[in-house]
Design brief:
Blueprint (H helix, E strand, L loop, with lengths): L4 H11 L3 H8 L9 H15 L2 H14 L4 H13 L3 H13 L5 H13 L3 H15 L3 H10 L8
Helix pairs in contact: 1-2, 2-3, 3-4, 3-5, 4-5, 5-6, 5-7, 6-7, 7-8, 7-9, 8-9
């Protein structure tokens, strides 16, 4: 298989909801297009999309074990716990990702939602205000303002 062709085929497999095949295709090719850890993170995301949470967790943990300072692994685990409805654990993982340097407004917004769902309203408000400051009037700021409306008034 030509380099890059595997990515195209993996994307096609994703659109057809063939998640295991997409993961397999990412590991093929003469020259790896992704590092081992990037591949594990990508596989974790694919497993999340496919609803295979155990496999996703194994991929994210492999990166977290190899690179304990990886904000991407923590954000991935935060997403996993959020999808499972484990808001306290999701908020811890997102907080760790932010503390490790993830500055993505998407991660901040996901963290704020996890804080709110875990009833950590002061943390949610503080994080939402950071999203609004970062993104001003962009997509994430609009979503942050919407979520801020759902927080009890005494925490604002």
């Amino acid at each position: 298989m030509e380099d890059g062709e595997n990515i195209t085929q993996a994307l096609a497999a994703l659109t057809q909801k063939e998640f295991k095949r997409a993961v397999e295709l990412l590991g093929e090719g003469r020259k790896p297009l992704l590092s081992k850890d990037e591949l594990a993170l990508t596989r974790g995301e694919i497993y999340l999309i496919g609803g295979d949470y155990e496999s996703a967790l194994a991929q994210f943990k492999s990166v977290a074990d190899a690179l304990p300072q990886s904000p991407q692994a923590c954000a991935g685990m935060g997403k996993l716990h959020a999808l499972k409805g484990d808001w306290p654990q999701a908020s811890k993982e997102y907080r760790k990702a932010i503390d490790l340097g993830d500055k993505s407004p998407g991660t901040y917004l996901a963290a704020a939602k996890a804080f709110a769902k875990a009833r950590r309203y002061a943390d949610a408000v503080r994080t939402l205000r950071m999203v609004i400051d970062q993104d001003n009037y962009g997509y994430y700021a609009v979503r942050a303002r919407e979520l801020l409306k759902t927080i009890p008034e005494k925490y604002k």
